[in-house]
């Protein structure tokens, strides 16, 4: 029997700083819930809206795999490794913070907001050399299909990180159904609904809900309405 944990959208931590409107699925910054520290190695799932021309000043990270997925608008990035990039909808950015990096990120547009997901995973090895990667994916390839956007293997589809994790995104029409087969025994799956309504096995999820599921090797995904989903398969320890 699979184990599950449901995080409804309205139960997330929320902080509106004016320039940043942030929702936190797991404890982050001033939001703390002892029951919402992490799901397996998934430590942070932040749903951030950054006002035009605003952003995060230079700040440090270490020993964390950081994945940024723009949902709307653009994000300009600059780091201590010399990378100066802009990521857009359809792009996936990965940083292996390893022994330590500094970076800044801001909305370069003066006329529209940026909405992004920032995800932190604990790595499977500490103190690696810091690394930056950015890829552009064809979003049309996730229509009624789970498009792999991340894996542990640099030769595989999508980008890669220092962790036995596989991420997929799908844009699903109402009524479309597909199974998801876990890639590695013992892993868990965290499903985050970006838009619409989705049924995971017998669990009904709505926009911005999250469901963690483990002690199983397959789930059924059915779109109750037109929907966009992010699937994060990750180790549970």
UniProtKB/TrEMBL annotation:
Organism whose genome encodes this protein: Flavobacterium luminosum
SUPFAM superfamilies named in the record: RmlC-like cupins
Listed name of the protein: Pirin family protein
Lineage top rank: taxon: Bacteria
Pirin N-terminal domain mapped to chain residues: 11-121
Matches recorded under Pfam families: Pirin (PF02678), Pirin_C_2 (PF17954)
Domain spans labelled Quercetin 2,3-dioxygenase C-terminal cupin: 149-234
Family: Belongs to the pirin family.
């Amino acid at each position: 029997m699979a184990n599950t944990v449901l995080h409804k959208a309205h139960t997330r931590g929320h902080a509106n700083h004016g320039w940043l409107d942030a929702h936190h699925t797991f404890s982050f910054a001033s939001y703390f819930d002892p029951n919402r520290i992490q799901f397996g190695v998934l430590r942070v799932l932040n749903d951030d809206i950054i006002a035009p021309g605003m952003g995060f000043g230079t700040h440090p990270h270490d020993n964390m795999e950081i994945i940024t997925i723009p949902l709307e608008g653009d994000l300009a990035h600059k780091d201590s490794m010399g990378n100066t990039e802009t990521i857009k909808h359809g792009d996936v950015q990965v940083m292996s913070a390893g022994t330590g990096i500094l970076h800044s990120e801001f909305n370069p547009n003066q006329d529209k907001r940026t909405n992004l997901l920032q995800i932190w995973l604990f790595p499977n090895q500490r103190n690696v050399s810091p690394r930056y990667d950015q890829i552009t994916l064809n979003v049309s390839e996730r229509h009624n299909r789970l498009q792999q956007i991340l894996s542990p293997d640099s030769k595989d589809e999508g980008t890669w990180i220092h962790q036995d994790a596989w991420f997929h995104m799908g844009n699903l029409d109402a009524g479309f159904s597909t199974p998801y087969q876990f890639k590695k025994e013992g892993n868990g799956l965290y499903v985050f609904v970006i838009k619409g309504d989705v049924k995971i096995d017998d669990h009904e999820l709505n926009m911005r809900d999250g469901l963690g599921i483990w002690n199983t090797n397959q789930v059924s995904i059915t779109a109750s309405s037109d929907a966009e989903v992010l699937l994060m398969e990750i180790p549970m320890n």
